[in-house]
Design brief:
Elements: E1 4-6, E2 11-13, H1 23-46, H2 60-78, H3 97-116, H4 122-127, H5 132-139, H6 142-168, H7 181-200, H8 204-233, H9 237-247, H10 252-275, H11 284-306
Antiparallel strand pairs: 1-2
Length: 314
């Protein structure tokens, strides 16, 4: 492992950034994307947009199901004792973020599947014709569809918040130990999901709506990042030094160039021109937003593992 050296106001990693596993950042990123997609799809169901044949609420749940499964698999790969993972579901500890997360992840699946059943694709009904009656049972009950939408929004928000709470509950890592990390991960997940659905949406109204929504999410994300730095800078010495890792330390170039610049500022400018019809909508901005969200998780996870109380005193 590369030698870690510190100064009073900054962390330095010599000679290059130490890289930890990819599994947790990928899991947090995919979890955030799924959370955002569930909120968006749930909102469309709540507003009755399932009446539109091109509504993204019909195909986004399939993407969510795939991404959530990949995220769960990524988390499973990171476990040291994989054969004991079932023990998470033999109890529920109200003070444990991991326990909350394990059960939220399980509850998310049936809600996404309920969304899928609102309109099953033809290749599914052709192969399993018996499922069509369940789909029709939902389409005949608009109030039930609204409730499925509300359940998607609630569980999506819980999933998005959990990805940040999981890290912020670890007090031994000053960079993670901030009460606003859950909000940063939630709004970043919403932004990435809005960018993705905006990019693939078949409905013009939804494309415009999500582009405008993503502009709001990106603007709010800048505000949350600023609040995070203010919170760290006005806290203890170790928290101030942890903040310096992103402000001017070894992780600063990646954070400011790829997360803030390419992941937030540039796509925000592009999408502002697009929603004001100055330029055509382009997939470049959504791809930047999604890439920036992924890099954000890698930076936060890796920088957080470097920051700890021993660095401040030895």
């Amino acid at each position: 492992m590369h030698e870690l050296t510190t100064t009073r106001n900054n962390y330095q990693i010599d000679p290059v950034l130490t890289v930890w596993g990819w599994e947790i950042p990928v899991y947090l990123f995919l979890g955030g994307m799924v959370a955002g997609m569930m909120i968006i799809s749930g909102y469309f169901l709540f507003k009755g947009r399932q009446k539109e044949p091109t509504c993204s609420c019909f195909y986004v749940p399939w993407v969510s199901l795939i991404l959530l499964s990949l995220g769960m698999f990524s988390l499973f790969l990171d476990l040291s004792h994989k054969v004991y993972v079932w023990r998470l579901y033999t109890t529920f500890k109200i003070a444990s973020p991991m326990s909350w997360g394990a059960w939220i992840l399980i509850l998310v699946y049936p809600v996404i599947i309920a969304n899928i059943f609102i309109r099953l694709p033809k290749f599914v009904t052709d192969k399993f014709p018996g499922l069509e009656k369940y789909s029709k049972m939902l389409t005949d009950r608009p109030r039930l569809i609204q409730n499925i939408g509300v359940a998607n929004m609630i569980l999506g928000a819980l999933l998005g918040m959990y990805t940040g709470v999981l890290l912020s509950s670890l007090g031994a890592r000053p960079l993670w130990n901030t009460s606003i990390l859950w909000l940063l991960f939630l709004v970043s997940g919403l932004s990435g999901a809005a960018a993705f659905v905006h990019m693939v949406a078949k409905n013009i109204y939804e494309r415009e709506l999500l582009a405008k929504a993503d502009n709001g999410f990106l603007t709010f994300e800048i505000f949350v990042i600023g609040l995070m730095f203010i919170g760290l800078a006005t806290s203890t010495e170790v928290h101030q030094e942890a903040a310096q890792m992103l402000l001017s330390g070894s992780f600063a170039p990646v954070f400011w160039v790829f997360v803030v610049g390419i992941g937030i500022i540039i796509p925000l400018i592009i999408q502002l021109f697009a929603v004001n019809h100055k330029i055509q909508h382009t997939p470049v901005a959504p791809i930047m937003v999604i890439a920036g969200g992924l890099i954000l998780r890698f930076v936060i996870v890796n920088a957080g593992q470097v920051s700890h109380y021993l660095n401040a005193h030895f």
